[in-house]
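Supplementary Methods S3. Input chains for the assembly prediction are listed below.
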Amino acid sequence: MSDKPLAPRDQGAPDYTKHLHPLMLKNYGEWVSHDRMRPGVLVHTARGGDKLYTVRAGSPRTMSADTVRKVCDIADKYCQGFLRFTSRSNIEFLCGDKNDLDNLIKAVEKDLGWPLGGTGPSVSNISHTQGWLHCNLPGTDAAGSVKAMMDDLIEEFRNENLPNRVHMATSCCQINCASHGDISVIVQHHHPPRINHNNMQICELPKVVAICPAAAIRPAVINGVETVEVVEEKCMYCGACHGQCPSMEIRDSETDSLSIWVGGKMSAARGAPTFMKLAVWGIPNNPPRWPEVSEAIRRILNAYKATGKPWERIGEWIDRIGWAKFFEMTGFPFTRYHIDDGPEALSNLNRSAMIRL
Amino acid sequence: MSGKHDKNKAMTLHTPLLNELESGPWPSFFSDLKEYSKKKPVVVQLLNQLEESYENRWNYWIGKVLNAPGYGGGIIARVSEKADKYPGLANFHTVRVIEPPGWVYNTDALRNLADTAERNGAGILQFHGMTGDILLLGFSDEGSLQCVEDLMHDGWDIGGSGAALRTLQCCVGQARCEMACYDTMKVTKHLTDSFIHYLHRPEFVYKFKFKLSGCSNDCANSMVRSDMPIIGTWRGPMQVDQDKVAEFIDAKGMEYLIDNVLTRCPTRCLSVKGKTLQVDNDNCVRCMHCINVMHHALSPGKDRGVTILIGGHRTLKIGDTMASVLVPFMKLETDEDLEKLVEFVERVWEFWNDNGMDHERVGEFIARVGMGTFLKGIGVEPDPRMIRQPRTTSYIKFEELAPPRMDGEGNKMPPVWNREAEAVETA
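Predicted structure tokens for the full assembly:
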């Protein structure tokens, strides 16, 4: 490689105009309305009357080169070679000819085996992270747990039977790269990091000390080795140091557990965006199918479906019915750990006598 | 050690636990990779190691550093702790690739990515990483570098990692959405290209993310996932097609309109007279709800632009931080508008990087120094639209009211409270 000249650097983002379906390019900025023809199928109408059909399906996010080629074969056949992905790892086949729709849908469902859905008031495909497949920090697997969850939720993905959309996310540690959702799954650690004093890299020590949000890490010399120590009462088991230094091992295959959080929302529709809130903790990290997670999610969705009003996202629904009712309906125990002691602690208390009795 | 360097060491797939992920109706990444492993022996090693993770609830990847010549990011290097057993995983890196804005693809480009991933590495692709980029998995050191050269030869560029600007992400925008209030794809490309140096060479105190959504439905998930969300909005009245309003009422009924549109407006600025919808546009906060429900009848106003927010990020280290308003409104249409945005971002970066601590996201920095100080630092005038309510804490260091010995103005005339605010340049 050394003799060959390097390829051009700093080329930036691809020219999107080369990646747009001809109807998207022609009607760029000229779209006037859309309709959902059935779950998983949208039609967008342009000012001049052009119609673009979108067939949305759930993808596994991780795919082999051969699967990518299969996707391309379908798009070449029915979509003039154009498609897109969504922020929740759904795939969208873009089709300009209504007459191709049935065959396109058949190809996606049968040849590719990917379900149509994720439109309107349904459960989205689950945004997820790298997990045991390729991350250096994970406490669990994301792709596998998501596969198991979506097996259970597929009818909620395929149909539009919920009060409003349910965005879901699963992260393999508390850093939570998959972020907030109406329902989010993350991992909790339950003790301070175990330090491998013989493998501390001196150059990283200041960073390890600096990154601790609880100021619990300080430099120390142990057995003549320059290293750090952790003030255990201060440590909140977050694992920030572990991201900085692999010798600060936070994970524990025996004690790490999962928790489910609800009511996160990015959209400002009807009210400002909201953070996710703790619903239930202490769920076993139970590969290969994590059945306890699916069961807990099912309880949340059943309660939401039963009493949510149209357009209420999960957080809005709980705001209306109250958290007491949420815990009653789901059967999750309400514990002292649900009461916030973080930066938002006081403002998260009920600072009024307004109570449903 | 024999076989240590034999990356393609023949191995039998042994995955009793992972096999459980083959049942059920949802597409299985495992079934896909299992089939593909017949062609790519290293994928057998990957799946066998993953099986051990499932068995032991433990992870075997460690990070290391590898960079393409001239770049300081873009390759996420991973080495396996079990390299003796799985020599193909000794170096098994991820290459981050900048995606086409809006995640749109032509199949030539996708096939090119698949071929490049397969030729140089394990041939595993992810659409997309949680930062919005394309991920190609499973390259040795040489494979990573060759992959990067091949990608760049074919017109791709690699993404950001480390204390640098991260790959941007945006919604589909005006390419297929009638609600998009600005050209998210164009702005994403413009910012990526303008700041490409910062994306490839970690020079910041910590990472910085932009996410761009065409309206406050925020399909790019910007509010808590980006340091600088740029969200489409409009000034003046929204557009109402009263004929379509009447059609909506005829089709859905007046009760539906009341229950699902009027009473769900956060500022109660909608009312109905007969079959005519009346909008108190002065009090509309551009939340998008009524437009979402009545999207045939209602649409954003004509004088469109963006709201720029600052400081969103997930929980490490000070807890979740939601972005908040920095620029209530700016136009973002012309080349001059775009240049103004670039200059504004550079001002924010300069103040943050000059004063931020190591590993301090801009939201954490603002939490530490206070938004008032931050605004002064970047030369932006305070605006009541930046806050939910004024402060409730009475301990304040008023610079103007301090005694002269502390460089204050004491009780000079005219009184401070009645003085016009100093004109500060805004974005």
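Chain A touches chain B through 117 residues (CB under 8 Å). The first helix of chain A runs from residue 22 to 26.
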